[in-house]
Structure formats: C-alpha cells, structure tokens
Amino acid sequence: MNGYDIFAIMEEIAPKALACDWDHVGIMAGNPFQEISGIMLCLDLTPAVLEEAVSENCNMIITHHPLIFNPLTTLSEETPRGRFLCGVVRENILVFSAHTNLDYCEGGVNDSLLKQLGVSESVCDETGHHRFGDLPELMTVREFASHVNDKLAAEGVRVILPESIDPEDYVKRVGVSCGSFDGETSWIYDCEVDVLVTGEIKHSAAVELEMEEFVTVTAGHYATEIWGVDGLAMHLGDRLLSEHGSDAPEVFVSSTSRNPLKNI
Predict the structure, then answer these.
(1) Number of domains in the chain
(2) CB-CB neighbours of 21 under 10 Å
(3) pLDDT value at 244 more than 90
(4) How far apart are the C-alpha atoms of 135 and 190, rounded to whole Å?
(5) Largest alpha-carbon pair distance within the chain?
(6) Which one of 44, 219, 245, 257 has the fewest beta carbons within 10 angstroms of its own beta carbon?
(7) Does 258 fall in a domain?
(8) How many whole angstroms separate alpha carbon 130 and alpha carbon 29?
(9) Left if phi > 0, otherwise alpha if psi is -120 to 50, otherwise beta: which for 225?
(10) What is the reported pLDDT for 184?
C-alpha cells in the first residue's frame, strides 16, 4: 500500500468536505507514492513522536493538528521549527493531517470525547459540529466536574457557573465541543443541553458564558482531543486489517505524545 491508498481510506473516515474553510488538512510532507511500512497516529507531531515513528519503522504519520498550518515563507535550519521540519523530510516520513474533519465526522473526536465521558449514544446537532447525549444517571454540577476530570485525566478542570445555577443542581444532558471553544451557543439551547464540555476558552468568552443558562466545563485542549486519536487508530486499523489482512501496514498510537502544558 502507498500513501494514496491510506489517503483514500482516510477520506472515507473523515471527508475533507467536513473541514472548516480556514483549516488545512491532507498531505503535509513526504512522498505519497512510497510503500507504507507502518503508520503512527498522534495529536501533534513533535521531535519525540518523530523519533518514535522511526524506531517503530513507521514511514507515515497521521496527525490531528496540522504539521503545517500557516504558509511557510522559508524552510531554514536557522530556527528550531525549521530544523524539525527539515528532519521530517530527511527521515522520508509521509505526514498527513485530519483536523476539523476528524472533529466532526462520525466516530471522530467529538464522538470519542462523549464516549469517554460515559455517554453511550451520541447525537449530532444541526450544524454537524457538535455532539450531545445523556448521562446514564443524574449528577450534580460538582460531581460532574469531578467526573470530567477523572475520565479525561485532565489534571484539573474549570467551571463557568451562571448565577442562576447552583453547584448542587443536577445535570443530565452533556454537549461537547472539543479543543478550542468555537463561540457557538444556539445549538446548546436547541438541543436542551445542561452542561457543555470543551477544551479551552478565552477570558472574554468565559465572561459571556457566565451570562448564559447552562454550565460550561473546560478541561484543556489536549484532554478533550487525545481520545480521538485512539478512536481513529481503532477505525483505521480495523479497515486496513479487513481489506488487506496481513499485508496491511501496522497502526501505532504514539506513546510519547504529551500535553505540552505541564504542572511543575
């Protein structure tokens, strides 16, 4: 199998048409004609992930966050970023990214996040950008915040609690918007969501959310999206195995991928 064979499967899993207009998805670097020996999946391509891919004989890496997002004006080893990108090219690694299209697709990042929170049935809102569902049992706001922290290994969550809502009030319906909060709230009311779980929120947006009539829990960008990598690995691995059997390249989830924000 070459890179184009993998691209075709990824197009079925997370069609490019689902990506936001501002996004940059698809091939980032490398030779799509080369035979693929192994595929490494990660949230972000870092030097540690690159080293891991080489050690595992993976010559293709699929990232969630695009390796190259803003257009490059130069590719020089005078900068840390430039040295890293040159290293990717020297290792002959094919890099492919699925970003907002993976967020929004069926079984994608938002679905994986909701599943990790214990919601077994995921429903899509009218925009196709968000998911929601009901908890198996009622929880108080305080209990749910702790639940989110534990289930997502978030190392601390923050809660935006409107004045009309008490920490001991119960919540049932959970909505998710992985990664950075997109500012959309109408769907939350349309879908009668009690609590929104998202990754990160700007201060100005948090001030506005405090005026709303639902609870917001922020768990961090990494903690709300890493589960989508596991979901993609299972989906892609199953497809390759069912269609190509033992000839299919092995799929790995990076074990060196880490949240860049650390507590010290």
Answers:
(1) 2
(2) 5
(3) no
(4) 18
(5) 59
(6) 245
(7) no
(8) 30
(9) alpha
(10) 96
Mean pLDDT of 96-116: 98
Q: Are residues 20 and 64 in the same domain?
A: yes
Residues 188, 154 within the same domain: yes
* Extended strands (E) in 7-130: 26-29, 38-42, 60-63, 94-97, 123-124
Give 247 or 251, the one with higher predicted confidence.
251
- Looking at the fold, whether 123 and 210 belong to one and the same domain comes out as yes
What pTM does this model have? Answer: 0.95
Closest C-alpha among 111, 97, 83 to residue 27 = 97
Same domain, 34 and 48: yes
Distance CA 171, CA 35 (A): 50
Burial zone of 90 (CB within 10 Å; 0-12 exposed, 13-18 middle, 19+ buried): exposed
Print the domain residue range for 210: 106-219
Question: Would you say residue 176 has pLDDT above 90?
Answer: yes
Please report which confidence band the pLDDT of residue 245 belongs to, taking 50, 70 and 90 as the band edges: confident
Same domain, 38 and 50: yes
Q: What is the mean pLDDT of residues 159-175?
A: 97
CATH number at residue 213: 3.40.1390.30
On whether the CB atoms of residues 228 and 253 are closer than 8 A, the answer is: no
- Nearest residue to 222 via CA among 168, 162, 178: 178
| pLDDT at residue 246 in the model | 84
Predicted confidence at residue 247, as pLDDT, reads: 86
Residues 203 and 114 in one domain: yes
